[in-house]
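Contributing new complexes? Match this layout with fe (ii) ion.
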Amino acid sequence: MLTAGKTEPGLGLGLRHCHAEQILAGEARVNWFEAISENYMDSGGKSLYILRQVAERYPVVLHGVSMSIGSTDPLDFGYLRKLKLLAAKVSPRWLSDHLCWTGINGINTHDLLPVPLTEETLKHIAGRVNTVQDFLQRQLVLENPSTYLSFAQSTISEPDFLRALVAETGCALLLDVNNVYVTSFNADKDPLDYLNAFPFEHVVQMHLAGHEDCGTHVIDTHDRPVRPEVWELFRLAWARTGGAPTSLEWDGDIPSLAQCEAELFKAQQYISPSSEYRPPVDVQPGASGSVSTPVSFMIPNVMDNTVGEIA
Amino acid sequence: MKPPISGQATASLAGLQRWMQEVLLYPRLANEEQVNNEVLASSRLSAADCLGVYQRSYYARLLTCMREQFPALCYALGSPVFNEFARDYLLELPSDSYTLYQLGRRFPGYLSDTRPDRELPPNEREHWIDFMIDLADFEREVFTMFDAPGDEGKLADDVNLADEELALQRCFKIHQAKFPVARFYSLVRDEKNPELPPLQTSQIAMVRVNYRTRLIPLTNPQYQFLLALGRVGNVPSAFAAMDAVELDVDDIRSAWLTPEGWREQWLASGFFVHAAGLSVA
Ligand SMILES: [Fe+2]
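Output block (do not edit by hand):
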């Protein structure tokens, strides 16, 4: 079985349609790219063409949003087959998805919904992770999601849940530092306690992203710079993971490639072997009404990709 | 859509997921007592408010995707009306695919099946509704061209190829509508603020070359010829099929062969590949 390795350290960026031309023109300065699996699995057109080109020049990893590993629906083997085929085409360093469910009864909500953290859920998901890993013939990497609610029936903390899942399946972890902040804030928990309990030894990748502070809660909007408090958590996580490859997710109001890179490269200020957590200064809450789990960045601008002799 | 179940047992993981999906898709079914049983309040938000983050985001995020998949229809209807139609659609036919590219797949059919004047004979129905359905249908077709299998790098452009050697490339479609939808779509793209067009049959070809989709207006004979070509697979047989649509074969053949005629134009526009087994080295 292929296992995710830590041999490709450094800073990467989420691959987005709007940056493709510049990346293919050789203007990117990042070390690697993370591609959303579902955007390429069915592509016989431009999306797959771009990913193949990128994969020829840079290390890539595949990041999925629809495996629905926590769902009580049966696993979708049609989906897994396509994922396996895509992996064969672009040879990703590893392949990840989220600790979540996306729907049941054949419905996809296109959200990353939380699971109750119980022994029952652990057993259910561990069984499915094993099946998926056997089918894909590679290690699965799972990410801690952003959550906005806590279930009354949960009995296990998320770090402990993930640690047990790794122990039972041999899967690896993607630590989203921003999600740690979002989930902890919304659950009245201290993100430092979360990190202190986290099984860093199994982390093969980290995510950075921006969130919106709505005062009473925070929303993982991926549409703005990384917040200072998240950078501080990153400082700690970088040191504890021994410098796990880290990528920036920017999915709404996506700025230029250069601006995304500038945001990502701020990470260098927080990377040092003797990293020590420094409490951040207070930040002002923004407006509420934002949408969690932005997905519209996955829809290509097809209209601008048409030419007509008609108008 | 099957009627939602309420007040179900949530003790199991399956039960909890049934409940949560139900209150996500149908927020009005959320009963306060059950929400308080399942979800913990935070120090700043009630249990219902925590759940509300998911409920609000569900439709908002998918409506954004629908607007992006049907930008011309959204322009024609205006965002508020478009959102209403799209919301009803998502309520009736929630996403059934792992990919968002399929989100709008059933929208044109849904609009057609639920039009308020569907009981009337076709000629008594509202024109603007016909237009909306035509436009939705067209936009879905254009959208699927983006990632459909194609023949980039394999297109035939050599005018010396024999007719027998030509086959339509994979990422090619012809489209007929009761309204000039492609023209309307292009005007929206070019920010020309078009008015709703009058009833007028339009026929176009969509062809993808170098991963760009080109919209090319067709005359009726061109449309009929390409329709036949798509069906029978080769040029000589397509000529033979012209009788059936009451077109003069000789006229068609001459339009095809004439210098700068259909044949040359369409070769240059990337309509063709070498027919299977006959490819020229
Ligand atoms: Fe993430």
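Reviewers usually confirm one structural detail per submission. For this one: Chain A is about 30% helix and 15% strand.
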